[in-house]
Amino acid sequence: KAGVTQTPRYLIKTRGQQVTLSCSPISGHRSVSWYQQTPGQGLQFLFEYFSETQRNKGNFPGRFSGRQFSNSRSEMNVSTLELGDSALYLCASSLWTRTAQNEQFFGPGTRLTVL
Amino acid sequence: TQLLEQSPQFLSIQEGENLTVYCNSSSVFSSLQWYRQEPGEGPVLLVTVVTGGEVKKLKRLTFQFGDARKDSSLHITAAQPGDTGLYLCAGEYNNDMRFGAGTRLTVKP
After folding, report:
1. B17 CB near a chain A CB, below 8 Å?
2. Is B82 within 8 Å of chain A by CB?
């Protein structure tokens, strides 16, 4: 079965702009989580959506937001981009909520560069 | 500071050598996972350990969960170039999954 897909794979923006990233989970998976990965901080949790509701949120400013649609596809938005937002943004899906008992499957990520 | 500290941060070895990487914390985790991430890909789950002192083997990889469930190690025997990648540990803590920054392993042929 198809894996998690993320679009676009690469994105270059300038400071102050906004960006929307998209994630299509594995068919049947209801949970989608978003992570930011940088060399210095590693993988940092942004938020989790389950059945169109935000279930959990990491310690990121309000410029980072997301949503989930009825087909479980998810988008995340970053407004007023800053240089420090340059990172690999990973999406992961799981059958149920994000715990060790429910394996997360990661997409290949969207590489965002802010100039 | 990271809840999970991984060491070493970078490791470069020759094919055939053995290695151990570590994942440490001062906090207790109900379970711990190891992932491998290759360039251009997302992390892929290798193993989940849930019991203190638990040892799991996956071919040439041996995973151990500390008795106090605060740390874990990954040992690779006779490393191969295909083992190259970023190894991440993740722990379940207060109903949340937290990741370490990873160990970047390079195995040279």
Report:
1. no
2. no
3-state SS, residue A85: helix
| Residue A92 exposure: Cα atoms within 13 Å on the Cβ side | 29
* Pairing outcome for strands B10-14 and B103-108: parallel
Predicted confidence (pLDDT) per residue in A40-81, tens digit: 788 999 999 999 999 888 889 999 999 999 999 999 999 999
Distances (CA, A) of B73 to A57, B47, B56: 29, 12, 11
* Residues on chain B touching A26 (C-beta within 8 angstroms): none
Q: B107 CA to chain A: closest CA distance, Å?
A: 20
Counts of helices then strands in chain B (DSSP H, E): 0, 11
| Residue B102: Cβ-neighbour burial (10 angstroms; 0-12, 13-18, 19+) | buried
pLDDT, one tens digit per residue, over B32-87 is 999 999 988 999 999 999 999 999 999 999 999 999 999 999 999 999 999 999 99
Q: How far apart are CA A26 and CA B25, in angstroms?
A: 32
